[in-house]
Amino acid sequence: MHTFGHPAGITQIKAICERYNIPLVEDAAESLGSYAQGRHTGTFGEVGAFSFNGNKTITTGGGGMIVTDDESLAKKAKHLTTTAKMASPHEYIHDMVGYNYRLPNLNAAIGCAQLEKIQLFLDNKRELAMRYKSFFESQSISFIEEERGSKANYWLNSVLLADKTERDNFLDITNKAGIMTRPIWQLMNKLDMYKSCQTEILTNSYWLEERIVNIPSSVRLKNHVL
Ligand SMILES: Cc1ncc(COP(=O)(O)O)c(C=O)c1O
User: Which residue among 30, 58, 103 is best mutated to probe the pocket of ligand 1, counting the most ligand atoms within 8 A of its Cβ?
Assistant: First the structure.
């Protein structure tokens, strides 16, 4: 998963998967327009998934796409997402448990129009991120930047505060001033329905959860004064 559009250490993950014969599936929902070592995220694994949800870099209202260069996998995915209906002149025969996950043509048309603007969206997001970077540098607050060797789409900008108290102060002051800032999503293992599931120690996750705050990231924000 490429968090907030920042490419994960995907070449290292891929090497581990190859070593242990594990299929690599990339959740690139947040990273359309992000590259690791010059290669687009979502194209390192056997399958990559992108989201076109309303809050993503481009949207079709809802839905998304999966990408793969494995033709049989592509055909199977198409089959499963279109109710697993067999080709037949007039009968309705389904040979697997399928799903109605097709992207309707109306949504796809919106997606085509959005694609024409993707470069503008990415440029605006990058410009906004660079303005945040210099602003937060002047405030001695750590702004999350792209890693060396990767290009992030800056889908969702974020800052790393010193500790939970600073995070809570930051959230309080900004929200009282009408600026929609949010703490990072709660860790899934803390949610009631997953509390009893197996987890790792998650030291880094707990540390980050107490300190990360997401800040406004709309493509239209770059013209606003920081
Ligand atoms: C990392 C990640 N995976 C999956 C999803 C789900 O995508 P969708 O909303 O298109 O179902 C999202 C966000 O919505 C996401 O950020």
Answer: 30
